[in-house]
Amino acid sequence: MGKLQSKFRRRSDLYKVKEGADTALVPQVVQYEPAHTDAINCVVSLTSDLCVSGGHDQAVVVYDWRAGKLCKSFQGHSREITKLCCLKGRSLIFSASRDKTVLMWDLGRDTEPVQEFCGHELVVNGVAVSPDGTKLCTGSRDNSMALWDIESGECLQRNTISRNLVTHVCWVPGSTSIVQTSEDKTIRVWDSRTWQVTNTFPAKQYIQTHCDISSNCYHLLSSSNGFGGQGCEATLWDLRQPGCKVAEYRGHLQTTACCVFVPPRPGCPALVASSSYDSSVKIWDQNTAACLYTLTLDGSGPLVSLAPCDSSSLLCASFNTGLHQLHLDQGAVPSLAEVARF
């Protein structure tokens, strides 16, 4: 059989702001130097002050979001950046691309890649680094998951599963387990020692677009594509009982592209954040699944990636309006406000 065809396509032209539309910023939103010249696909937190982003302009950009200053731009991919990962506090950055490769960059060196990981036959949509920083996991639409030695760039393991068109990859902190989502609507858990699937979660109704692991490694979040409010949910799973669904977060009207655990604050309820193609970011009570706040970023187009920086700061990547810095007030009634764009 041929490869499963993707059921969702990112058409940036569908979300362009129409000429003459009112694009004025809210007065209190600060506009910094733009990080990119085109749609952004992903953003991750590198340090308490720095984020890394990538998108259609093929650049990997390091930005000081607190100061509103571009620090470094890496160029080396021949097609758009799909995913990024790094180890917080370390200077190494890994970028996956539609050009079928993953490149490694060092913030402390020049702008040339320091390692290249080649071998996938189609776009690489998942990349995750091991907790000890020695191994790299990648997943692709070619149905394969691969394990690499970071220092040598050698492919150590490769496993192909029919219809496993990988959409995202997470390495469980402090463990040998890797979680991946797929266009076949399934979530799989891998053992990095044997490079075999150890658990497969019950298939959802829609494509699973993203996943995230809680800081205590007890829970997994996944998000679904969809349209017209059908699908479009985020799901909380118990990693201690693989396949055990704890809660669903429903309310987005289009594909939920990203879902993340919000860093906890003492005395406050556990929170989850999600972003969607419907141009909104929602804050949820992790335990009750109640939607506590919705922020709509008019004119932004799809909001495709979230990066929690601390318990009060979220970064959000958009197709039309760059990166958004959001302030989260975890008071008695949580609220979310945009404070800057870049």
From TrEMBL:
The keyword Transmembrane helix does not apply. PROSITE patterns: WD_REPEATS_1, WD_REPEATS_2, WD_REPEATS_REGION. It comes from the Eukaryota. Coiled coil: none annotated. SMART domains: WD40. Keywords: Repeat, WD repeat. InterPro entries: WD40/YVTN_repeat-like_dom_sf, WD40_PAC1, WD40_repeat_CS, WD40_repeat_dom_sf, WD40_rpt, WDR31. Pfam families: WD40 (PF00400). WD repeats lie at residues 74-107, 117-158, 166-200, 249-294. The keyword Repeat applies. This is WD repeat domain 31. It comes from Culter alburnus (Topmouth culter).
